[in-house]
């Protein structure tokens, strides 16, 4: 019963096998390996974007911060949701990589931006001429930090707001596959056709050891990206091992299958909880994370039984009256089993 | 009728005379001038702080950003009001000088922080361990951007919250003199006795050509400050001309007299407006700025008569129905006359 | 006998009078003052550059660092002389403002770059693709830190090397007037006609209180410059006092007269020393600084008589055998008198 | 015949097996995995440093830049050899991570610092008070970029110079194992006993997929390091895969065996070349890299036969008279075979 995060999971055999297969003979370093050429082609085909440039890094924070540094100068601001990973979970990496840009935090239910709120935030910003930061970029997280997703149409609506102000749009797709599976959109529909300029295309949370692709749909700043990646210490010498993961991830739709499995597990958990009087869903379960409240006593039993997940927010206490509801985040991954889900449900039910 | 800002005013004769007097013979550069020694002594005496270190820079943004860079590391956040100058009017200078720290924006009426809101914001921050930015510092603006002031006791209450989290406290005192005059506190009571670690002590808005003192009540990081100042390009070679302004500003309480005059003018304007049915004060007038709404038609007449002030927010339009109230910011300075105030009041009244 | 630096001098009456004249009534802040419009026009005319954009800051370090940040990205390097002010005297301000660019130090006698040495340095750089910093910009100091000057033709020859690599060229003209007077070139010949893209046009060392102009001969990045200036805390609210200095400095060729006086004084000192058996010039005296060695005993007498100048390098000692030659830097300014020069010469001669 | 770099090699089976073994079940992320606890213990034991703190990152540039950012403030300089990796091969990552510190380049034969040259460089720096950058740290590369090594005694001598100025010392140990094997020193003797404060302990070049340890012998700034690592995007979520590599690398002295093999291969190649009239060694071969010159015609034959190595410097041309000697860098790794070495030698000999 491991629901702590999708980053506590192991790697599926296809990806491990690809690493093993890559481990023969010499290979050119720093992205000049033959597998990277395959990856580039595969991503271009997957996204129907023959001109896109593709770069690999090992962490989502690196992918996001480097991407934003390409889009937003130091004297500008990135419009994002208050609960975005770039705001809450990256220890000011975007500020570091941009050289001191701001994040302007936009409110919205379920960690989702609305076009109206985004427009208001952009409109309000930069009204003081040289005195305040300028409008820089928009960043959209899909799937969101609260387990919800944007449809391609919703992304388009947000990008249209950005376009009204000539702002580029970044998508934090650490859980891009989960969003895609949930919506049924194609990769192209969800990205460049919906106005996305740069995508952080996540691999790690969805099954890889540690690899994310940055996809630049407009390759104009590709060389700048390469220099920024190197300067950030994110250019791998033995790059083939990043390439191999990503190649296997993309092959035969593995990435979508892994995400589908995670989403299905979350749906099962969510539906199971929703059926209980004692439990309440806190956000719609649209991807692979379930946010729900249920009695403290059930949490105590779950933890005693070895279930792993975070009380969310984390400063709630298991001590106290048993009938008080505590809220929790439970994340499913490609390797979550129905048995795990059912076991947790049984505990919450009090079986 | 000039109420656009306190930075559109000229310099009082005492300060000009001091510049003229300083302009004889050679003087050691970079702060080693004899006048700077006087300034240091005068500020230490004024603040009853014999160990304080004192440095001069030419702009308020430099004073604030350098001060914050001393208190807040790049991976931490500065808690401040949403309307603070460091957030709204410094084009990310704090982010630049700190190396990418965040500002955490706290809400509060009349541009004032409350201890409760501050505590909630600090408590909420840094709950994710290494993943999010750490708690860095608190910055308090006195007088505030909305013309209100904190009493020394109110500053102490805010500092006490900061102290609970071991956070240092900065005061943006661009209008420190106005706050002091308004409250009757001594400089010491308003600063180190109330928990302030570093003060941006404003000179420019209150009558100087361009000089602000940074007062480090704890001199432990004085040398670091000197290096940061130099590296920021804020160390003046012909430093005597900064020193001379500040020396004259402090001499015989000139700084307090200038602020008193500005505050009195604002009070006269505020009271005059408050007496009108057609006008409404938007914030209490406690220092030298008046925020009020009155009919568009009166604004049109005022502007036609050459009155200078900003509609606030700036995106309101003078075009449209004359009876719609528009809000405005009107700032008084050391050289605002009662005649100017009365002339504006007459126009608003429709005399 | 004050030869410590040209920044220990007072301000000539024309500049002080301009400040006094500017100190009437209200003036729009932040560079929107009427005097700034005059300054802009005057500089455009002086440089025969009607499209140039002109901005004022208060220190040479700010002018240089901001200029370089416009020309050189964080992953590139600025080619400059090993003794350049940007390397030796700005506490890494260029690194700070560029966001971490390097300076590549080029050797050359008398603090002067040669086209050959510059070409070799540029050619050597950036040969490792993405692994090393890229070629960014060239910075030329005129007059140099060792009191020599480049002719316009020499500047052109350096710019031609930069042009071969598509690199922009910055001139640190903290002592631009001294170089101009020394060479007889026009401002245009020395700058844009010789391939200079951005000029730090010094006022402070040559008589102003504290003002430098940054002249962008190509205005394409003017708005970026304005944002960088603000973000660095270098935008003055009471900007008229910068404008007034610069306007007076330019009026009726004052700037050239001041520099001519300083150069003449240095020439007199240099020639007087050269005529002595016991003294040796260390660099040609082409602007307003004299570098010479003479016996320790003469230094002791000079210092005893109150002469002010720096032993150069500074770590030489006045203690020891009297006949050992020590080297010194003696800088003349607009207010250096022949009497001061002759008095120092008399001491060195041993009169 | 692959001598392009030690980063073109595959991974030895022990490390791959460790990855496979680690790939079971759930593991806590971000360094809280059980294998990391083993790694920490192993490194502490290996270095006889029970209080050391140990962190893993994936690239050498990250290890170096993060380490230096801990030791050197933005207004200071790192003393290093002109050919150091941090200068030549990291695209200003140290400048980026330190926030704009400088590197002061010290000359020395065979990419080695001498105490005398280091002392002179440190002594020369920071003589201008606040005006220039301060002395920050010393960085020593062992093995060096030219395939030479420092003995523990030589490291101590360099550290003693640093200690005279109270400067911390960093060792870039991307090829630490090669240096250790070459000198016979223990890990402790080569590091903290020789005055090293922070070590970049390389894994990647010596056989890992991509992992470097940063060893802080003084744990005082451990938390700061963790924040800097996260903010740089270098904290891995699925950290177990870094841990597993490093654990296997350390186990049963694998790291030393791999390095011994690489060094032996280089020695064989070096000796073979030295025995030829037509070849000349350019640096002593003390670790795993051979620098030698031999006739262009031999290079042409080698390249035609598929040998991979870099002409060094890279801008030499294979076109031209065949008897002209060209210089080359040939790097051996853990998987270089005697057959490969002999094949290359045969080609150079002209067999």
TrEMBL record, chains A, B, C, D:
Domain of life: Bacteria
Domain Aromatic amino acid beta-eliminating lyase/threonine aldolase: 3-291
Enzyme class: lyase
Recorded GO MF terms: threonine aldolase activity
Cofactor: pyridoxal 5'-phosphate
EC number: 4.1.2.48
UniProt keyword annotations, A-Z: Lyase, Pyridoxal phosphate
Gene3D superfamilies assigned: Aspartate Aminotransferase, domain 1, Type I PLP-dependent aspartate aminotransferase-like (Major domain)
Pfam family, one: Beta_elim_lyase
Reaction catalysis annotation: L-allo-threonine = acetaldehyde + glycine; L-threonine = acetaldehyde + glycine
GO biological process entries: L-threonine catabolic process
Complex and partners: Homotetramer.
Function according to Swiss-Prot or TrEMBL: Catalyzes the cleavage of L-allo-threonine and L-threonine to glycine and acetaldehyde.
Family recorded in the similarity comment: Belongs to the threonine aldolase family.
Designated name of the protein: L-threonine aldolase
């Amino acid at each position: 019963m491991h629901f702590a995060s999708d980053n506590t999971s192991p790697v599926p055999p296809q990806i491990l096998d690809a690493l093993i297969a890559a481990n023969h003979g010499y290979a050119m370093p720093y992205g000049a390996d033959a597998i990277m050429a395959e990856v580039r082609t595969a991503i271009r085909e997957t996204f129907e974007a023959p001109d896109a440039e593709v770069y690999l890094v090992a962490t989502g924070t690196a992918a996001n911060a480097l991407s934003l540094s390409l889009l937003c100068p130091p004297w500008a601001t990135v419009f994002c949701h208050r609960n975005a990973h770039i705001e809450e979970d990256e220890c000011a990496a975007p500020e570091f990589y941009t050289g001191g840009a701001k994040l302007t935090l936009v409110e919205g239910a379920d960690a989702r931006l609305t076009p109206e709120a985004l427009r208001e935030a952009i409109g309000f910003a930069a009204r003081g001429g040289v005195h305040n930061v300028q409008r820089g970029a928009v960043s959209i997280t899909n799937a969101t930090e609260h387990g919800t997703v944007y449809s391609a149409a919703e992304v388009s609506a947000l990008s249209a707001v950005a376009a009204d102000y000539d702002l580029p749009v970044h998508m934090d797709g650490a859980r891009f596959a989960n969003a895609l599976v949930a919506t049924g959109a194609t990769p192209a529909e969800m990205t460049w056709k919906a106005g996305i300029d740069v995508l952080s295309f996540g691999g790690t949370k969805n099954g890889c050891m540690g690899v994310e692709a940055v996809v630049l749909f407009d390759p104009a700043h590709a060389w700048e990206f390469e220099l920024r990646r190197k300067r950030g210490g994110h250019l791998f010498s033995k790059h083939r091992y990043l390439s191999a993961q990503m190649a296997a991830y993309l092959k035969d739709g593995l990435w979508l299958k892994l995400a589908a499995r995670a989403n299905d597990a979350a749906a099962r958990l969510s539906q199971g909880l929703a059926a209980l009087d004692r439990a309440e869903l806190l956000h719609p379960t649209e991807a692979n994370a379930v946010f729900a409240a249920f009695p403290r006593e059930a949490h105590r039993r779950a933890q005693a039984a070895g279930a792993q997940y975070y009380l969310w927010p984390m400063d709630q206490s298991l001590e106290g009256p048993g009938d008080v509801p505590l809220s929790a985040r439970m994340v499913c991954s490609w390797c979550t089993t129905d048995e795990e889900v059912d076991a947790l449900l049984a505990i919450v039910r009090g079986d």
